[in-house]
Amino acid sequence: MSNSILEGRDAAGESTAESSAPALAGGTPENTAAPTTAVMSMQQALNRALDEVLAENPKAVIFGEDCGRLGGVFRITDGLQAKHGEQRVFDTPLAESGILGMSVGLAMAGFHPIPEVQFDGFAYPAINQIVCQIARMNYRSRGTMPMPITLRVPSFGGIRAPEHHGESLEALFAHVPGLKVVSPSNPHEAYHLLKYAATRPDPVIFMEPKSRYWQKGEVNLADGGSPTGAKVMREGRHLTLVAWGAMVSRCLQVAELAAEDGIDVEVLDLRWLKPIDAEALAASVRKTRRAVVVHEAPLTSGLGAEVAQLITQSCFDTLKAPVERVTGFDVPYPSGDLEDEYIPNIDRILFGIQRVLEYKRG
């Protein structure tokens, strides 16, 4: 890979905040059929998914700090209280342990709670409820008390917020037996994955990449494809980039730049971080024979280590190089301008690709 592709690239400025209503495709005044696609932001896609979940499931309830009248700090629940009522979309005190504790009681009473932890760093005070109650109640009761809770967690960095407003907690959640963990990468995935998660009988941690809330894209409302497993977002031959959440978009940018130098990169969106789709992971890496895992969390004991082990276990005989990880650093997640130094940028990912491509045994 030539140095020209590694110099002078800026990973910032990927998204701009726009609040216009979604533009519908495929519908005209003369065409009375409901449109099957819509161009919308991830924020709008999540809002629509929640609206439909409330309409379809009378036992679904949404709550959290400022989720009701205000519609959430990111406006994900905007307008839902006015439409569905204060009994089904409501505000809570500023107490995450209370929010998740109430979720347990509601689930035991037959409801499907969809609580929101306003920022990922605010989940720490509720870890006892998540680990000791939500994740274990089904086991503890021998299946008589399932926990159909969909916990929405605005996650990761990229918005230059203060401390505790940007974290990457997927390895913490994925390590806990009884929890499922998923993170969408674009509006289409956000809409369909949230609707699917909100029908599960198990607790699902839904990690929303807050830096992508304003990313716009086409959402096929009628056909979301399979809502489970990993998904190839770009086909390639020379190397597989594995990512999730906000890093998928960045890896797609990297793939476009690498193509200018003749490097054909495949991008695999893991989507489900627990359980991990080991078959899709192996299929992609067996084809390309090289892999780089990209995530925002610190390197040590990050989810990338689990992904690398699954790749090595399934593809050891075909790998041409060790699995590379491009991650955050082993420091507390920084705030403000320091995020640009911490979050994997285009240059760091390209250098990771270069190291794998240039690896020689012996």
Name some characteristics of this structure:
362 residues; disordered N terminus; alpha/beta; five-stranded mixed β-sheet; 32% helix; four-stranded mixed β-sheet
How does this model look, in words?
It is a single chain. With 362 residues, the chain is of the alpha/beta class. It is 32% helix and 20% strand. It contains twelve helices and 15 strands. The protein has helices spanning 42-56, 80-84, 96-108, 127-134, 137-140, 170-174, 187-197, 246-259, 278-288, 303-315, 339-342, 346-357, and strands at residues 23-25, 37-41, 60-64, 89-91, 112-116, 150-155, 180-182, 204-209, 216-220, 231-234, 239-243, 265-269, 272-274, 291-298, 324-328. The protein has a five-stranded mixed sheet with strand order 10-12-11-14-15, with helices on both faces. The longest helix is centred in the N-terminal third of the chain and has 15 residues, at 42-56. Residues 1-21 and 23-31 have low confidence and may be disordered.
Short précis:
The protein has 362 residues and is α/β, with parallel strands linked by helices.
Residue share in helices? 25-40%
Summarize the helix and strand pattern as letters: EEHEHEHEHHEHEHEEEEHEEHEHEHH
Order of strands, widest sheet? 10-12-11-14-15
- Sheet with most strands: 5 strands, mixed
Judging from the principal axes of the Cα atoms, what is the shape? globular
Number of strands: 15
**What would the average pLDDT be, to the nearest integer?**
91
Low-confidence stretches: 1-21, 23-31
Instruction: Note the total helix count.
Output: 12
Structural class: alpha/beta
- Rounded to the nearest angstrom, the distance between the terminal CA atoms is 21 Å
Q: Radius of gyration from the CA trace?
A: 21 Å
Strand content: 15-25%
